[in-house]
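Deliverable D2.4 — example input (structure tokens):
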């Protein structure tokens, strides 16, 4: 288990995002958590030069819908990367396992069949405190990390265009 702030990174290692376009899909379920992930992602993209008009944000009802929405965004928009943000907190039934597995496999499938990186920002926690810790709490903000990853992956994919 992580015991340090996971959002600490070398600012200079992140490429300039001024010309990049991003899509963010965020789950409405557990929005007290996913809203903070969204704030972190948007702030970090802007901090690295992304223009507000180049950040599209869409919401979906729950985390399971992230896969469909990410695929639609890849297919029908002009974004360079998609970030999916959700939060599934383990309960008393196996629903947690099915949702987490479905989203993980779905996002993986989109990544291997398309040229646009889709960044996996689904918190899968055992309890609400773990989610709080990872959405701006003592372990940082996974939204920040996803934004940095998106920028780096766009830069990586662009390196093959020359």
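Example output (designed residues):
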């Amino acid at each position: 288990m992580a015991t340090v702030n996971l959002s600490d990174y070398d600012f200079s290692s992140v490429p300039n995002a001024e010309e990049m376009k991003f899509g963010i899909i965020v789950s409405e379920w557990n929005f007290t958590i996913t809203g903070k992930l969204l704030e972190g992602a948007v702030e970090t993209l802007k901090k690295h030069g992304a223009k507000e008009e180049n950040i599209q944000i869409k919401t979906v009802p729950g985390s399971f819908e992230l896969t469909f929405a990410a695929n639609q965004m890849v297919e029908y928009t002009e974004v360079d990367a998609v970030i999916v943000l959700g939060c599934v907190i383990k309960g008393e039934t196996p629903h947690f396992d099915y949702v987490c597995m479905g989203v993980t496999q779905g996002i993986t499938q989109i990544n291997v069949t398309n040229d646009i990186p889709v960044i996996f920002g689904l918190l899968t926690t055992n309890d609400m405190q773990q989610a709080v810790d990872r959405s701006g709490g003592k372990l940082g903000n996974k939204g920040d990390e996803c934004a940095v990853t998106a920028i780096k992956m766009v830069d990586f994919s662009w390196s093959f265009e020359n």
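Strands lie at 22-27, 55-60, 81-89, 118-125, 135-137, 140-141.
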